[in-house]
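Contributing new records

If you add data, match the layout below exactly. Sequence lines come first and carry their own label; structure lines follow with theirs. Keep one chain per record. Anything else will be rejected by the validation script.
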Amino acid sequence: MDDILIVLNHQTNIPPFMLTALRYAKHKYDKVYYINTKYPHFADVFLEDNNIVFLQPTNKGRIVTKLKAFFRMFYKSTVKNIMRCISDKGLNFGYIKPFGVGLAADACIRPIADKIIKKHSEDKITVLSTWLAFCAYSAACLKKEHKHIKAVSMAHSYEILASRNPLIPYHFMDFKHKYLDGIYFIADAMRTFYLDGIREITPAYRKKMFVCHLGSYKAFSVMNKTEPHLFNICTCSRMIPLKRLEVLANALADWNKGKIRWTHIGDGPLMDELREKAQTIMSKNPLVEIVFKGFVPNKEVELYYASNPVDIFINLSTIEGLPISIMEAISYGIPIIATDVGGTKEIVCKEVGMLLPQNITTQLVLKSIEDFYLRPQNEQQQMRSSAYNYWKSNFDATNNIKKLFSLINNL
């Protein structure tokens, strides 16, 4: 009997946490099938791994799935969920679209998984959904149809927080709770927020909900270095409003200590606006240098930490799950300033850096940076060592992925 892993993902890329999972799974399972809607980015790194297969529907199959999704909008279960949503939230036809998109994704990936399960009917099969979204619905449907398989899902942030997406409680959640064997939240805070947002979860279903931190994979064995006479801060995110990069920019406008450089990694809709603001700040304050690097592939982000000095990594988000960007930074010994949102406090303890309240001000951000800047060198170095050690003990993805699969195997 072989061990078979089927991974379901509605995205067109392999998220970083799944890259690490696949690196581990290829040694644990006899065959790994990764199913999503299109051939994923980064899949080529596994070309030489004969036991990992990437599967997607054909162009003809996508047309068929859209038709299936349209007709399934009129199924009793779908109508029941939509009507419940309208009853609670009021009449809004915009509520219908997410159901259609989700059902299309399900119709796209589930038939492929179903064929694999029938092909390996004598084997031990685990179906893993990467998100507690419609790929988790697919996993639950497969479990209902094939009682002998194990069906589980990971749970992150956007797809589970009713505060971010008020339609989440209506997306077949009771069905997922009933048929999934296990749900693995990336942070204790995320599990708590989810339970508070859904509320109608029975004790029996709560027992199937676990917490398992993910972690980051460290590509380079070196540690980050500092440089004298220039204080370096770094951010890494999409340039969108919830990241509050403009607050950091405004704080640096008032900087009056030594020379400081802010490097931002990532792009987004606010890039032009922030570039214009940066130019204004630098023209008025010669102590400040601001560099926007734009989009950088994940491995090159790590190369940046391995090759360039960074004294502090900053994350001022209004919402987070368990930010991998912070994990990656501390894996290179970089201290953190971050807002206390989501599961961030599960990474940023006093040994790692400084937590700020969610409702930050420009003055508070400026003072926090100054506090780090004015610390003696030996204290800064101690925090850098502590940051790395905390990552190694708690957020090394190689270890945490083993824990995740061990939990799944022991269900």
